[in-house]
Amino acid sequence: MSKIDLSINKTGLEHNLQKAKENNIIIPTFAQMQNPDLIPEKIKAKLTNVGLWDVNPLNLFRITWKNEPKEFGGLYQKTPNYIEFPSELTGVKARIVAMAGKWFPTGCHKVGASFGCLAPRLVTGQFDATYHHAVWPSTGNYCRGGAFNSKLLACDSVAILPAEMSKERFDWLKSIAGQIIATPGCESNVKEIFDKTWELKQDPTMMIFNQFEEMGNPVWHYNVTGEALSTVFESIKRDGDQLFGCAFTSGSAGTMSAGDYIKDKYPRAKVAVGEALQCPTIVNNGFGGHRIEGIGDKHIPWIHNVKNTDMAIAIDDEDSQRLLRLFNKEDGKKYLREELGLCPELIEKLSWLGISGIANVLCCIKMAKYYELTENDVVMTVLTDSAVMYGSRIAELDEMHGEYNTKEAAIDHNLHMLGLKTDNLIELTYADRKRVHNLKYYTWVEQQARDIKDLNDLWYDTKGTWDAVHAQAAEIDELINEFNEATGLLKNL
Predict the structure, then answer these.
(1) For residue 377, which phi and psi values (nearest 5 degrees)?
(2) Which phi and psi angles does 299 have, rounded to 5°?
(3) Of 176, 174, 61, 184, nearest to 115 (Cα)?
(4) Which of 133, 193, 444, 482 could tie 450 with a disulfide, CB 3.0–4.6 Å?
């Protein structure tokens, strides 16, 4: 079965209600994350005294794309924070627009995806906060978001991530997660993470929230990220503009479900999936290691609606590394200002791009070049996190390549952005999509013991699976409202 199980465990639910009362936990709904106008005014008043990264249950109400861009005391705005990248920078006529994940708690939108996985089991009592540990297997940001949400929801957590992820991730997790497990390898070593979860499953107190198969992940992205992308497009579109499509690198593939929303609302739109050229699982059934932190490879996530994917694009990890320096070193900023004429406000916003965010933008550029898009075509993506998580990576690049200067900045821009070509991508036919979907068998049926009937349903029964799963947000909201009513905390604010 692919839908989220919403059956009630009364004992666990009673324990969770008591925990919530003791810790003043009020849980937001998906509807409130879509539209913060629905959040009670008394909660908004309290948020004016809370920092964006504070370990405070009120920050559950900041799991939305529509936060004000403030580190402390911010509330909400009608349109999500976004960057439109000018043609002088991208080298293409198309309008490339990206929403910024920097203004979520933890500085990354994965706090939303992990909420989508934990909240349904919490408000049904299937996860008992007095008994279970929430286990968050991840290539980096998802376990950060899961550990943060666990802390806010008074749950114990276990964060699992590859040992070669950035130092900043591990340093931050030490103060948040109950336990940290570093598995061998880099971003593409996903199987090692899965193997660790099989070990932990032997302990009945360990409940696994595997982002690559948890349907709460696409439920959140479809209903919250998809709606937010549409809001941005509607706010910036000009006469004659069309939302041509979206492009997202595939970590867990959760964000790809935002593309499902876009296709539902704009039926002509195309959706592209990106991956690392050094590990071209989709483009070439390939394997390897790479440096685009936050995306996972060597398998096709269970939750990737492959049938809805129009293009696969491989990005060289060297491009994202070089551009990280361009956007964050002073001489890089000088080049962007003096040679390209970019305004200071835009240049500062380029720090909103983490490594996978840069890769997402490069996917959009390759998509625009392949389809020969014009100034009336809009291609959208998201910036998962920001440069905040990669200071140590920039230092490593300086050590590897020497101090930066404006000449190197010009080379980086021309070679690693303007010089992008339409190689290493595939416009997916029906047969191509089926081939990619079939790769799920080896990971999920053979290794992870999923039911082959469910695998076939993901392909053949799209309305009974994907549409039904996306619609579960309304059911989960009903359970959240019942939970909040039972604690009485919202009523007594």
Answers:
(1) -100, 130
(2) -160, 170
(3) 61
(4) 444
Strand 179-183's sheet: what is its strand order? Answer: 179-183, 156-162, 133-137, 206-208
3-state secondary structure of 249: strand
- H or E segment and range at residue 173: helix 167-173
Q: Copy the structure tokens of residue 275.
A: 């991956």
The C-alpha atoms of residue 296 and residue 293 are separated, in whole angstroms, by 8
Structural contact between residues 380 and 232, judged by C-beta atoms closer than 8 angstroms: yes
Helix, strand or coil, per DSSP, at residue 439: coil
Q: In the numeric block, which tokens belong to residue 289?
A: 């290691």
Bridging pattern class, strands 95-100 and 425-427: unpaired
d(CA 408, CA 398): 12
Distances (CA, A) of 111 to 99, 148, 248, 366: 15, 7, 17, 29
Paired with 182 in beta bridges are 161
pLDDT tens-place string over residues 114-165: 999 999 999 999 999 999 999 998 876 888 899 999 999 999 999 888 887 7
Q: Which residues pair with 207 in a beta bridge?
A: 134
CA 186 to chain centre: 18
417 CB neighbour count, 10 Å cutoff? 21
Using an 8 Å Cβ cutoff, are 21 and 493 in contact?
no
pTM value surpassing 0.70: yes
* The token pair that represents 6 in the structure block: 């919403």
